Amino acid sequence: MTTRTFDSGPRRRALLAATALATLGVGMAQPKAVAAPAARRVRLTLPAPTGPYPVGTVSHRLVDPGRPDPWVASRPSRELMVSVRYPARDVERYPRAAQLLPGEAAGFDRLNNFGGVPQGRIDWAATRTFAHQGAPPARARRGAGRPVLLYSPGVGDPRSLGTTLTDELASRGYVVICVDHTYDGSAVEFPDGRVETSRLPEEYERAKREGTVVELLRKTCAVRVADLRFVLDRLDALVAPMPLDRSAIGAFGQSAGGFAALQAMHDDRRIAAAVNLDGVLAYVEGDQDPGPLSTVAADGLDRPVLTMGKDGNDHHTVPSWAALWEHSSGPRLDLTLLGSDHATYTDATSMLPRIAVRLGLPEKVVTDAIGTVDPERAVAVQRAYVPAFFDRELRHRDDAGLLDGPSARYPEVRFVD
After folding, report:
1. Mean pLDDT of the chain
2. Per the record's keyword annotation, is Hydrolase included, yes or no (predicted)?
3. Please, how many CA atoms are within 13 Å of residue 67, restricted to the half-sphere of its CB?
4. From CA 308, how far away is CA 336, in angstroms rounded?
């Protein structure tokens, strides 16, 4: 199950349950899951993007020499891995990229948020995305720059757990930069083969002992925001030779990634619009807990924001979202996907139902993570509303009028007044 970063879930009492060893919540008094016996491992597929462009991808290692790593004192510089998704051409000559590299796949198998899925039964490295490695960028219209989006995943998750949505956006003409937050995500593999795994399980255990959980939550979000801003600093090198529209930069993410996207927009005027996919905006361990607000919630935003929550989460029920609504002067839209849960806004929506069928797992493994919403409809909703928001706010076009109110095509979506 995907982390309820800065919130809690049905089988978690705390934020960093996302990083729990062997899919168990940190601090939970439950027996550790035992790796499954040797068997043929399940292979998974992802939904193909629906936009007019094929998708290309390249990965980059970034080094920030001015920032020592905040999680590992012996590292004098902060290192990140990012993937750039973009509209491409002539993709037939280029292989489809793996969702996870071998080291990342092994790390994800050991430490992921899919509660109830036994270790060693899924071939995580076998999943192929629909992004073609190294394919040339599609030609843009003369004088036209492409809009850019930053994507941040939930705590404990790799940048690739949002592949369905990031590839969809790239297929619709966006350049999407997916950011791995080193020592936060389950495992990050660098070009030299080095794999860095999450330090957050031990950080959380220490914070619980010392009574410093709020401070850890603040640090986790601050590191992510600094990562996103550093990626913006390196934008030209990352997307060369694609022309950019620097007035059309957005950010989005799931859970802690959604929090980081909105906080980064608050802190950095370069970001013009943001989408928060079920991320609480306070330093608390439960969605409805009152507690220390982030500055984005306390100050509000003067630029457009979309919040899409799981069923039951909206700006009337989540205190930090209520604060954001009260203090913001910019356009804001609050949508609920009925029947959804926290991990609905990740690739878990496509993966977990297939895993459960293939391994004969209880239905609860699926519903605890993604709720009772039909998975195909959940994917369709995200592919409709997130691009529609960025199209309206960054491209200044609203062809479908989808954001004006409820649609008969998407009855699962509730507009929250």
Report:
1. 91
2. yes
3. 16
4. 6
Please tell me the predicted confidence (pLDDT) of residue 39. Answer: 64
Strands in 175-180's sheet, in edge-to-edge order, are 96-98, 128-133, 55-64, 78-87, 175-180, 146-152, 244-254, 273-277, 305-309, 332-337, 413-415
The pLDDT value given to residue 24: 25
Q: In which domain, by residue range, is 242 found?
A: 15-415
Any idea what the CATH number is for the domain that residue 273 is in? Answer: 3.40.50.1820
In whole angstroms, what is the distance from residue 322 CA to residue 280 CA?
A: 11
* Total domains in the fold of the chain: 1
Rounded to an integer, the average pLDDT of 117-144 is: 94
The per-residue pLDDT for range 33-88, each reduced to its tens digit, is 444 444 689 999 999 999 999 999 999 999 999 999 999 999 999 999 999 999 99
Say if 115 falls within a structural domain. Answer: yes
CA distances from 189 to 46, 103, 308 (A): 21, 6, 30
| 144 band by pLDDT with thresholds 50, 70 and 90 | confident
The answer on pLDDT for 316 being more than 50 is yes
Which helix (DSSP H) or strand (DSSP E) does residue 333 occupy? Answer: strand 332-337
Q: Is residue 203 part of a domain?
A: yes
Q: At what angle do helices 363-370 and 348-359 cross, to 10 degrees?
A: 170
Q: Is 100 part of a structural domain of the chain?
A: yes
How far lies 382's CA from each of 165, 188, 242, 292, 368, in Å? 7, 26, 26, 30, 19
The model's pTM is 0.92
Torsion of the alpha carbons at 160, 117, 336 and 267, rounded to the nearest 10: -40
On whether the CB atoms of residues 244 and 145 are closer than 8 A, the answer is yes
- Phi first, then psi, for residue 263 (nearest 5°) are -65, -40
**Which residue, chain included where needed, has tokens 């995580």?**
124
Q: Residue 216: which residues within 8 A CB-CB, separation 6 or more?
A: 16, 203, 204, 207
Q: Which residue has the higher pLDDT, 175 or 30?
A: 175
**What is the signed CA dihedral for 371, 24, 108, 151, rounded to 10 degrees?**
50
| 7 found inside a domain | no
